[in-house]
Write a structure and sequence with these properties.
ATP Synthase, domain 1; 2 helices; 10 strands; binds adenosine-5'-triphosphate; five-stranded antiparallel sheet; alpha+beta
């Protein structure tokens, strides 16, 4: 079966993941995308989520906090703000980030007008924490 190369890099961690894969399912600002070998060229922005990477008959989850993806027919390159494979995720840290973001969102909703909370920032932090907990298979 044909495969496509996936290279995932971050400014901080360099190459986080590199493998020939069967399929990648990602969430972009335009919605969910499934990338198979020989995909048309594409450049898109990704939002924080748990990416699904399929190879060798299994599906692997990778947490990504947003970034850019370039697709050519034989290669996918993702430059992510940050990205973690399951073994790199600190669950307690992600749970604490989730709680902080949730509390900020609740406080904002109770009085949006006089709130000093940056709601977009809190929502993005919540999405990053959710992605990390999903990758670790932890419900929230
Ligand atoms: P926190 O509030 O806990 O810092 P965050 O979502 O604001 O979370 P980021 O700005 O996305 O953190 O990431 C900063 C750095 O910390 C990145 O290198 C990222 O990989 C790492 N990181 C963040 N959260 C975790 C986690 N739960 N486990 C492992 N690494 C993490």
């Amino acid at each position: 079966m044909a495969t496509i190369k996936l290279e995932l890099v971050t400014p901080e961690g360099g190459k986080v993941f590199g493998h020939d894969i069967d399929m990648l399912i990602v969430r972009s600002t335009a919605g969910e995308l499934g990338i198979l070998p020989k995909h048309a060229r594409l450049l898109t922005e990704l939002i924080p989520h748990a990416m699904r990477v399929k190879f060798d008959g299994a599906e692997h989850l990778v947490a990504i906090s947003g970034g850019f993806m370039e697709v050519t027919p034989d290669k996918i390159t993702i430059l992510a703000d940050s990205a973690e494979l399951p073994d790199k995720i600190d669950v307690e840290r992600a749970k604490a980030a989730y709680k902080r973001a949730e509390d900020r969102i609740t406080a904002y909703k109770s009085s949006p007008k006089d709130s000093e909370i940056d709601i977009r920032r809190a929502e993005a932090a919540l999405a990053r924490a959710k992605a990390r907990l999903l990758v670790k298979n932890i419900s929230f």
